[in-house]
Amino acid sequence: MLLSREKNPFFEHGEAEYFVAEHGGQVVGRIAAISNRLHNETHGDRVGFFGFFEAADDQAVADALFAAAAGWCRERGHDVLRGPASFSVNDECGVLVDGFDTPPALMMPHNPRYYVRLLEGAGFVKAKDLWVYQGGSEARYVPVPERLARGTELIRQRMGITIRPLDMKNFKGEVERIKQLYNAAWEKNWGFVPMTDHEIDHLAEQFKPVVIPELVPIAEKDGQVIGFGIALPDLNVIFRRNRSGRMFPMILKLLWALKTRRIRRARILLLGVRPEFRGKGVDAMLYHWIWTRSGERGIYWGEAGWILEDNPAMNAGLEKMTFKVYKTYRLYDRPI
Q1: CATH 3.40.630.30 describes domain 143-299
Q2: What's the pTM value of the predicted model, to 2 decimals?
Q3: Which residues contact 72 (CB under 8 A, 6 or more apart)?
Q4: Nearest CA-CA partner of 231 in 179, 174, 303
């Protein structure tokens, strides 16, 4: 479904072509060349993208794949090739450059160390680093820092902000509320691409079977949604045990693990606040909620991110919660 031009709503505003590299009758690499109209309209540039990159440790293979993607993008008027982004920054993106010794969390890429050498050997240079944080401990519950707990209570009292869990009985209505906030909360971020209504609906339907309402806090003031967060159990804990490659028994194991609360890890996918409420502690209230509700479910470790390396507010907020950077992903650019 992800690669389907008929089923993925990305293709309502984008194009892509898929290439494979072969040598001696064997497939030794793959890449997607991507043209995203919404990105170019938002940023006023002519950036094309590459994604779904996999290659053997062979510079000639990588060069051939990048040349194919660059040529396709150049034909469509792009003057820079950026990636990896599969298909955009709203999907899996970045190449891992630091933190290879830990497994990937849900919806995060992982790659061999030599990918960095292949990209830089092909003339790519750093466009932006994406930082990923970890906090807590898989072995035991670490209490919320006392300063954060006190601060969030003061903010609640002074500003009259309330936090509540996602209402699964009104899932469609909740998605509509998040739609109104999502693009406003991220619009000024570097590389941001707005999501269409269809894309948000599509993503929500994918998340619905595994969402835990208590881990999707909604912040409200005077009845208006002003912020939200989305944390999901790290389903990769279960997927890593799938040695057979068959999905049917794995889905049953996944559902059983969720039901019996056997997953001890979570990933905070999104956390956003309306621009007029930033810097007022609403993000701290959302983090506090996720932290405490996760602990109640036996989830003691969390990954948060990614966060742009030059987003001081979000990075400072996570550091105040004693979260630490443990992985770095990178987006690369090359003129074409």
Answers
A1: yes
A2: 0.91
A3: 17, 33, 48
A4: 303
